[in-house]
Structures are given as C-alpha cells and as structure tokens.
Fold this protein.
Amino acid sequence: MSTSLINLAYLVASALFILGLKGLSHPRTAVRGNLLGATGMLIAVVVTLLNQEIIGFGGILVGLALGSLVGAVLAVRIPMTAMPQLVAVLNGFGGGASILVAGAALVEAVGLTEREVTYQLTIATAVSGLIGAVTLSGSFIAFAKLQELISGNPILFPGRHVVNALLLIATLGLAAMVAVQPDQPLAYWGLVLVASALGVLAVIPIGGADMPVVIALLNSYSGLAACATGFVLNNTMLIIAGSLVGASGLILTRIMCDAMNRSLTNVLFGGVGAVASQPGGGKGDEVYAGRVKSAGPEEIAMILEIAQRVMIVPGYGLAVSQAQHSVRDLANLLESRGVRVDFAIHPVAGRMPGHMNVLLAEADIPYEKLLTMEEANPQFEQTDVAIVIGANDVVNPDARTDPTGPIAGMPILDVDKARTVIVIKRSLSPGFAGIPNPLFAADNTLMYFADGKKALVDLITALQS
Amino acid sequence: MELLVFSLTIFVLALFVGFEVITKVPPTLHTPLMSGSNAISGITLVGAILSAGLQYSTLTSVLGVLAVALATINVVGGFLVTHRILGMFRRKS
C-alpha cells in the first residue's frame, strides 16, 4: 500500500474517532458511537499491518493476541463497582505503551536508521517518556488505592513538597538531556524511571474523595502521551486521537473540580481529609447531641405510604453495599403505588465521573430518572421524602453556611429542602471531608442506621406488609 | 521545521474539535466517555506495530512487541467495557 493510501486510511480512522465521541453525546447514539470508534481503530491497525516496511509479523501477532485476551477478560469480568480501577489500569497500559514506542523510536533514529534526528523528535520523545511514565505509575497507585491494596486516605509524609520538587527538577534535567544528547539512550530510561517515581508521589497524597479528579486527569495524560508519540513518529492520526482524549480528560477534570468548588492545585496538593478526624470528632458531638432522631423501617414505611414525590440520593455507600438492585426494587414498588420517584445524582457521587449513573443503569433504572444536580435542586422543595443512601459530603448544608469549612462553597444537593429527609447510613461517622453533617440533626431528618442494602430490603418488606 | 508546524496545526485544531464534541456529552455518559476515549488513546498501538515489525534490532523489536501487548489491552479492554456499560443504558430505552 502506498504512503498516500495509508494516510488516507488514517484520515478515515481519525474521522471515525471524532464521530464516535460525538455519538456519546446521547444514550441513543452512544452504542453506535463506540462501534464507530472501534471500527476506526480496526482500520488503523489493519492498514498499518499492510505497511510494506513491516517484515516480521510473529511478534506483532503474539502481542495482539496476548493483549486482546487480557483486555477482553478484564472488560468482561470486571464488576461495575470496580469500573474506576479498570479505567485506571487501562490508562496506565496506554501510558506504558507510549513510553516503549517513543523509546524504540529514539533508539532507531539515533543508532539504526538514517532518519534525521531533529529537535522535534528528541523533545517529543522526552515529553512522551515523561507523561507516559507519570501516567503509568500514577495510574497503578490510583488502582491500588481504589482496590484498597493501599490506604485510600491521603498518605502524607514530611518534606514531600521538597522531595517532589527535587524529583521534578531531576525529571526536567533528564528531559533536557534527552532532547540535546539523544545519543545517550540511558538518559531516556533514567527519565522514565524518575518520572515514574514522580507519578507515585503525586498520587499517593490524594484521598479517595478526589479520585474522580485523578482518574480524569490520568485519562487526559494517557491521551497526551499518545499525542507526544505522534510527534515522535510524525503521525497525524496519533496526534488527532491523542489530543481528543487529552481534551476529554481535561474537560472532565474541570467538571469534577467545579463540582467540589476546588481548584486543581488544591486537589493535587491539598491532602483534604488527612487530618480531619481530630477536629471533626469533638465538633460532631456538638452538632449531633440530643438532636438526632432515628427511625426504623416500619416508621419510614408509614411516611412513604402518604408521599407523592420521592427523590433518592445515592452515594458511594450504595455502591459499597451493592444496593443498586434493592434501590430499584424500592423505586418500582413506590411507583406501582402512584408515587413519582427520581434519582438526584451529584457529579462526584462515586469514584469516577458518571460512575453512579452506571451503577443505577446496571440495575435497570431508566436514564430519564437520573437527574443531574442542576435538574434536581429546584425540585427538592416539592419533594415529600428525600432518601439519602450512603451519601455524606454532597448533601452537607455546611457547604452553604460555613465559609471556613473544608467543603465551603461546594455545590451540594439541596436535600434539606425536602419535607422529610431519610438518611440511610451505618453510623454518624463523617465522610471523606471528615466533618460532621448538620443535616443529620435537622428537624425534618430521620436517621435510619443500617447497611444500605439491608435497610432497603427491610424497608421494602415493611412497605409490603 | 515545516513538518513540526504542520503537526502543531493538526494538534491545536484537534484539541478544539475535542473540546467542542466532548462538552456536549451529558454527565450520565461520563463513564463510558472516559472508557471509550481511553480506548482511543491506545492508538499508540499503530506506532507499536511499526516498532515491532520493522525489526531494526532485537531491542526495538522487543520494546515494540511489549508495546503492542500493552496498547492492545488498552484498546480491546476499553472498547469492550464501554460496549458493556452502554448496553446497560440501552436496554430500557
């Protein structure tokens, strides 16, 4: 196949990627969009295999077969609650591939072919190695945190900013060396090593609540690494596809930061929630003392009997107790009695952008019922009963009233405006932000202390009897 | 130099297209957006196939084959899991 034909095919593939992402703007067209993207990838791979300069197919086929097998098993086996972990790992693999491709290209250009060693090649190689390594190691730390192989809490050590600064300087120094003296391949692998350490130290201090931001950011990095590799290889398709992913990740990063009213800097360096339990513990007694009312399933069933509008607010606690199917049963039961039931979903509910929507979709809850924060908030005043399941900080009115608190100014779901609020939670323990929630002690709030799933099952039984 | 300017042009224009297309994705679909775009970032696979197939040296071939395997996991895993997620949204519509 001639170079022009190959490039034309790459153009088609790039267009399919754009159309594929466009398809994701509506649930009806999303499946087709994903298939278009996959088709684009297939075209890109097949056309590349037809490149006449390729002389050995054995290694390629082994790599493709192995990768397909592992990828397919991961994709089919993973439970929906573990989706953030999977995305983290896949990001990491993408970053790793970019490191290797850029490294191989550098070795080829410097020692093996007559290709001109330009600054574009060397600088892009350094950038690719740097971003790829941060993505690879950062993603695996994110995976380990989400999988609870290591603590999900922020891990802070004294002097970490100094260590990070030194590592950053070393990284930039090595990157400059790769750019100026490309005939020293060790500089490149040194860069990869130091940048990997930087990735580890960058993600370790970030706590569980901020994971949606980290995952979105790493997603962006994996795209930018591919993009840099495109500059190394002078391949426009890699540049286009990589920047699409880079843009997507950056947009999601911003949406997640806005949803918490935090700057990206604060998320990356703030260590929110790390020391929270000391002040929180004492203050919690003050907030809650004597004012918390708890109720059992029978009492709550009686309230729901006369309700006309119910809003369910799911949080990560729902995912942890795998209660998405029970919550659907409750919603169906209420609807069969003429109650209108909707779900109000905060942008950072769950552990990656849109994660809660996926969990509820898994339980067959129609996506028309999944309201965004903007859609739900004006409706709470007309809501008879708001049921909060395992959510904490995203319904904390302190965000509106306490300008000095760690979640000050964070947009929240205005659950407290509903006529009655039922909070299903195992205890009064604070959420990720580590602060008590005055909602739990409000006059119109009833606490239902139980595991999310068991609480719902008992509630359904009470409603049926 | 000319080639660099050309590549930069493509890069900047693609970023704009990306921002335009992706800001229209509703929050409900943010997870499939992420897993799907992630699969697309596995496009490095194309570069990996070239490294593995050109066989300039044992080192570059080994790096290439490793890269092919990693990128393929990213691509296949990403598209498949996105399909699986979207199937859940589709069923009742």
